[in-house]
C-alpha cells in the first residue's frame, strides 16, 4: 500500500523502544577551530574499537529470529472475478454474488480453497453450459474449501458462483502502524448521524483484506481480470477499477453501475468507493483522468491533483512504457486506514492529504504533491509488475518512494529533490536506531511489518545509488526492460538484478547482495591529511561486521583548491582503507561524497573554517544543510552567525528554514541584529513554513517581548504561521491574547486546533474546560492525539472534583474510538492524571488489558 503515514504511532513506538534500548552511547560535540572532527547531523556514535572476537555483543537494533515467509504456493489461478454487490447500510453488510473463473496451476485439482473472512455462505454452484450445479464445501469463517465435480487439468478452466453475505464490520479488530485496520470494506457514517462527515463506503485491500468482502485467493502472486456490478441509491456515485461500461436505473430507486477492468491485476488491488462526490475531469492521451472529492473542495481539487496529466507524461516517457491502464481516478475518502492506496486505475487517498480550503493551500508543500506522484508510480511498480510476495515489497514501495525524488527533480529542480532525499535518509536512520532488516525480508513476524521506513525510505535511497552507479541512461533502459519483460506478472528481486546486468553487462550481485539482501548500512569515519601535493584520505567502516557487511562503495571525493572543485572517483572495499588524491596545494576543503548520494552515517573530519567554506561554495542543498546543522551549536562564533544570517536570504526556502531553526536561542554578541533578522523573516519571507519557523525561534528567546508581532501573525493568511503565533503566545501570553485566541477557537484546521488547545492547556480557565469537552466531539482522528493530552494538561489545573466529565470523555475515546492515534492520545491524557485523580490508574490497567490492537497494547505497556 502506498503512501503510509508512519507518523504518530511509529514515532511513539520508536521513541519508547529507543528509550528502552539505550546503552549509554554519547554523541560528539561540534568542531572547534583546532579541527576537531564534525559528526554528520544524522549520525549515531559507534565504537571506535570493535569488540573482542570471543565476545559477541548483540546490538539493540537486531530483530528477533522470525519465521521464513515464502511466496504463496500457487495451486489454483484466479483468472477472472465477476462481482454483483449491494449494501445494507444499517447492518453494514455486503450482499454479494461472486462468479470466479479458475484454473489449476499445474497439477490436476478436484478442490479449490478460497479466502473468505467472516461470510455467511448462501450457496456454492458450478457453472456448466449455462446451468448451475450445487457443490459441497466446508467453511471455517476464514477458508472456503469447495469440492469440485471432478478432477480438472491445468488446460481447463471452470467457473464457480458463490452467493454470500460479508460482514466486515463484525470481524475482530486488527491492524498495524501502517494500515490501521484490515476489515477490507468500510462503512463511513452509515446511518448519517455524524454531521461532520458524509456517508461513504470504500475498500482497502492491501495486504490481504479484500477477502473480507469477496471470495478470492488473496495473495499478491495471483492475477485476474474483473467486472464489478454495484447497486446503490441513485444519489451516490460509484468508482471502481477499469471503465464504467453500463449504468441502469432500477425500479426500486437504486442504480446499478458495472465497472470492467480488462487487464489482470492482483486481488489486493481491487477497489470500490461509494459516496457523494464532486468530479473534476482531466485527460491524458485520450484517457480519462478524474479527481473525486467532497463537493466543498471541488474548487481546490485541481490545485492538489492537477499535475497528474504532466506526471503521466513524464513517467511514461522516462520509463518508455506508456501508462498501461484504462483510466486513472483519484478519490479522497474519509477515515481512510492508511495514507493512500494505489488500486489499479483508481487510487484512494485520506481526505486530509488531498482536500484543502483555499487558505490551507497556501501551506501546501511538496509533500502533498509527492503522495500523488507516489501512488501514480505504483501503477507501473506494484500494479503492472507486482511483488510475488510481501518479502519482496520494496519492488513496489522503494520505486514509489523514489518517484517522489524523480518528480521533484523534474518539476522543481535539484534542491527540492535533495530535500526529499535528506528527509528520507533521516527517516530511515531514525528507524535504524531500533531495527535493521534486509530490504528483501524472507523472515518477518507479520507481513505488514514490511511497511516500514526500510521498504520505503531506505529502498528509495538504494535505487538512487544504483542510478548514480550505472548512469541515467542505463538506469532507465534497465527499468524499461524490467517492466516490459515482467509486465502483468509477479516478480522477485532477481528479476530486477538481471535487467540491470543485461543492460550494463556487469555482474551486480555485489550491489544487490549488500543493499537488498543484507541488513544495516555503512557507518563511516573519514579523516584526511595533506603532504607533498597529496591528500591522504582514510575511510574506516565502523559498522559491526558481525551483523552487517563490509560495503563496496563507489563514491566521489571533491577537493577544493583556489576555489575550484576537482572530483576524484574512488571505490571503498575494505574496513580500513587510505586513498591518495593528487592536489596542487593544500585544499581549502576535502568533501567525501560531495553529492550526498550514499546511504550512510558519516563522521567526517572538518574544521569550522572548512565547514564555512563548504557552505559558501556549496554545490547543492545537502552541502549547505550539512554545514548549518554541524555548526548550529557554535552560533556564538561571529563567522558562524554571519553565515547563518547570510543563509536567511538564500534562494532555497529549506536553507532559510534550517538557518532560522539554528538561530533559536542565539546568545552571541550580535543578538540584537539576529533578532531583527528573525523578525524580518517572520513577517516578510515568501514561504509560510519559514515565517512559522522564525516565529517559533523568536519565542525561544527569554525575556523578549514580541507580543505585537505574534498578535499580528494571528491574522496571517497562513494557518501554520497563525498556529506558530498561538504557540508563541501560549508561552508568553499578553493581556489581550486570551481574547484573541478565543476568536480562533472554532477553527476546523488541524494545525490551528492543536495550537489553540495548547494555549488553553497552559492559560485556559473553566470556560475552556467546557470548550475541550465540546470540541472533542468534532475534532477527528489524528488531530485528537495532541488535543486530548492538552485537555489533560488543563484538567491538572482544575479541582479534582471538576474533572469527572473530562476523565469520562478520555476513557470513552481510549476504549472505543475507531482511530488508533486518538485512542493513544486519550490514554496518554489519562496517564497524566494518575497522580491526582484516584481511580484513573485502575482505569488505565483495564484499558490495557482489554486493548485488542497489538500495536497499541505494546505502546501502552511501554508507557507504564
TrEMBL record:
Record's protein name: Aminopeptidase N
EC number of this enzyme: 3.4.11.2
Flavoprotein recorded as keyword: no
Gene Ontology CC terms, in alphabetical order: cytoplasm; extracellular space; membrane
InterPro entries associated with the record: Aminopeptidase_N-like_N, Aminopeptidase_N-like_N_sf, ARM-like, ARM-type_fold, Peptidase_M1, Peptidase_M1_aminopeptidases, Peptidase_M1_dom, Peptidase_M4/M1_CTD_sf
Domain Peptidase M1 membrane alanine aminopeptidase: 306-515
UniProt family annotation: Belongs to the peptidase M1 family.
One term of GO molecular function: zinc ion binding
Domain Aminopeptidase N-like N-terminal: 83-269
Segment forming the signal sequence: 1-21
Listed cofactors: Zn(2+)
Segments for region (Disordered): 25-47
Catalyzed reactions per annotation: Release of an N-terminal amino acid, Xaa-|-Yaa- from a peptide, amide or arylamide. Xaa is preferably Ala, but may be most amino acids including Pro (slow action). When a terminal hydrophobic residue is followed by a prolyl residue, the two may be released as an intact Xaa-Pro dipeptide
Any one GO biological process: proteolysis
Amino acid at each position: 500500500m502506498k503512501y503510509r503515514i508512519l507518523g504518530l504511532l511509529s514515532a511513539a513506538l520508536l521513541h519508547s523502544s529507543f528509550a528502552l534500548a539505550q546503552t549509554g552511547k554519547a554523541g560528539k560535540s561540534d568542531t572547534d577551530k583546532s579541527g576537531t572532527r564534525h559528526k554528520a547531523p544524522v549520525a549515531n556514535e559507534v565504537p571506535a574499537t570493535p569488540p573482542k572476537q570471543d565476545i559477541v555483543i548483540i546490538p539493540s537494533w537486531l530483530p528477533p529470529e522470525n519465521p521464513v515467509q515464502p511466496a504463496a504456493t500457487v495451486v489454483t489461478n484466479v483468472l477472472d472475478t465477476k462481482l454483483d454487490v449491494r449494501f445494507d447500510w444499517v447492518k453494514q453488510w455486503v450482499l454479494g454474488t461472486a462468479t470466479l473463473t479458475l484454473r489449476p496451476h499445474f497439477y490436476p485439482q478436484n478442490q479449490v480453497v478460497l479466502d473468505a473472512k467472516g461470510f455467511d455462505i448462501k450457496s456454492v454452484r458450478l457453472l456448466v453450459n449455462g446451468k448451475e450445479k450445487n457443490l459441497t464445501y466446508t467453511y471455517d469463517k476464514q477458508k472456503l474449501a469447495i469440492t469440485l465435480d471432478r478432477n480438472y487439468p491445468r488446460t481447463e478452466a471452470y467457473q464457480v458462483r458463490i452467493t454470500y453475505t460479508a460482514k466486515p464490520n463484525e470481524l475482530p479488530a486488527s491492524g498495524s502502524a501502517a494500515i490501521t485496520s484490515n476489515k477490507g470494506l468500510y462503512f463511513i457514517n452509515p446511518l448519517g448521524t455524524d454531521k461532520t462527515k458524509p456517508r461513504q463506503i470504500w475498500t482497502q485491500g492491501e495486504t490481504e483484506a479484500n477477502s473480507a468482502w469477496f471470495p478470492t485467493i488473496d495473495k499478491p502472486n495471483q492475477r485476474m481480470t474483473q467486472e464489478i456490478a454495484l447497486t446503490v441509491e441513485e444519489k451516490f456515485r460509484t468508482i471502481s477499477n477499469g471503465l464504467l461500461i453500463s449504468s441502469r436505473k432500477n425500479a426500486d430507486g437504486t442504480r446499478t453501475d458495472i465497472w470492467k477492468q480488462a487487464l489482470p491485476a492482483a486481488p489486493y488491488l481491487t477497489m470500490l468507493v461509494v459516496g457523494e462526490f464532486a468530479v473534476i475531469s482531466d485527460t491524458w492521451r485520450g484517457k480519462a483522468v478524474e479527481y473525486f472529492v467532497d463537493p466543498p473542495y471541488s474548487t481546490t481539487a485541481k490545485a492538489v491533483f492537477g499535475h497528474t496529466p504532466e506526471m503521466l507524461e513524464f513517467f511514461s516517457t522516462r520509463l518508455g512504457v506508456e501508462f498501461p491502464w484504462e483510466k486513472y481516478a483519484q478519490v479522497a475518502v474519509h477515515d481512510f486506514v492508511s495514507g493512500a492506496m494505489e488500486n489499479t486505475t483508481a487510487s484512494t487517498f485520506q481526505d486530509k492529504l488531498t482536500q484543502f480550503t483555499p487558505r490551507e493551500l497556501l501551506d501546501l508543500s511538496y509533500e502533498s504533491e509527492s503522495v500523488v506522484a507516489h501512488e501514480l508510480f505504483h501503477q507501473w511498480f506494484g500494479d503492472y509488475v507486482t511483488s510475488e510476495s510481501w518479502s519482496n515489497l520494496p519492488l513496489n514501495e522503494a520505486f514509489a518512494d523514489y518517484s517522489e525524488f524523480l518528480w521533484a527533480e523534474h518539476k522543481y529542480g535539484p534542491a527540492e529533490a535533495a530535500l526529499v532525499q535528506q528527509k528520507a535518509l533521516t527517516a530511515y536512520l531514525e528507524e535504524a536506531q531500533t531495527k535493521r532488516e534486509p530490504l528483501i525480508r524472507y523472515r518477518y513476524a507479520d507481513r505488514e511489518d514490511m511497511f516500514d521506513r526500510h521498504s520505503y525510505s531506505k529502498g528509495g535511497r538504494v535505487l538512487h545509488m544504483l542510478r548514480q552507479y550505472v548512469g541515467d541512461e542505463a538506469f532507465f533502459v534497465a527499468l524499461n526492460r524490467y517492466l516490459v519483460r515482467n509486465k502483468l506478472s509477479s516478480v522477485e528481486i532477481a528479476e530486477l538484478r538481471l535487467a540491470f546486468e543485461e543492460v550494463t553487462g556487469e555482474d551486480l550481485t555485489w550491489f544487490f547482495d549488500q543493499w537488498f539482501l543484507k541488513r544495516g548500512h555503512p557507518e563511516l569515519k573519514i579523516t584526511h591529511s595533506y603532504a607533498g601535493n597529496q591528500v591522504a584520505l582514510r575511510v574506516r567502516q565502523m559498522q559491526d561486521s558481525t551483523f552487517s557487511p563490509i560495503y563496496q562503495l563507489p563514491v566521489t571525493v571533491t577537493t577544493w583548491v583556489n576555489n575550484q572543485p576537482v572530483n576524484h572517483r574512488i571505490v571503498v572495499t575494505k574496513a580500513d582503507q587510505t586513498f591518495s588524491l593528487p592536489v596542487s596545494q593544500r585544499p581549502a576543503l576535502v568533501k567525501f561524497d560531495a553529492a550526498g548520494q550514499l546511504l550512510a552515517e558519516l563522521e567526517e573530519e572538518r574544521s569550522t573554517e572548512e565547514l564555512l567554506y563548504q557552505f559558501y561554495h556549496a554545490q547543492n542543498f545537502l552541502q549547505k544543510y550539512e554545514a548549518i546543522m554541524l555548526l548550529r551549536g557554535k552560533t556564538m562564533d561571529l563567522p558562524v552567525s554571519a553565515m547563518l544570517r547570510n543563509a536567511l536570504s538564500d534562494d532555497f526556502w529549506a536553507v532559510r528554514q534550517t538557518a532560522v531553526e539554528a538561530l533559536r536561542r542565539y546568545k552571541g554578541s550580535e543578538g540584537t541584529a539576529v533578532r531583527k533578522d528573525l523578525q524580518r523573516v517572520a513577517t516578510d519571507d515568501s514561504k509560510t513554513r519559514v515565517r512559522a519557523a522564525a516565529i517559533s525561534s523568536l519565542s525561544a528567546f527569554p525575556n523578549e517581548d514580541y507580543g505585537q508581532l505574534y498578535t499580528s501573525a494571528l491574522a496571517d493568511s497562513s494557518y501554520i504561521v497563525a498556529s506558530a503565533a498561538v504557540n508563541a503566545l501560549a508561552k508568553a501570553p499578553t493581556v489581550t491574547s486570551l481574547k484573541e485566541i478565543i476568536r480562533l477557537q472554532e477553527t476546523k484546521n488541524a494545525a490551528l486546533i492543536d495550537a489553540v488547545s495548547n494555549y488553553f492547556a497552559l492559560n485556559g480557565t473553566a470556560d475552556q474546560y467546557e470548550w475541550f469537552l465540546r470540541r472533542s466531539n468534532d475534532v477527528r482522528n489524528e488531530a485528537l492525539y495532541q488535543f486530548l493530552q492538552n485537555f489533560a494538561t488543563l484538567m491538572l489545573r482544575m479541582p479534582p472534583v471538576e474533572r469527572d466529565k473530562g476523565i469520562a470523555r478520555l476513557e470513552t475515546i481510549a476504549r472505543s474510538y475507531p482511530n488508533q492515534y486518538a485512542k493513544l492520545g486519550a490514554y496518554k491524557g489519562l496517564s497524566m492524571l494518575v497522580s491526582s485523580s484516584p481511580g484513573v490508574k485502575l482505569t488505565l490497567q483495564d484499558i490495557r488489558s482489554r486493548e485488542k490492537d497489538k500495536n497499541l497494547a505494546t505502546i501502552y505497556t511501554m508507557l507504564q
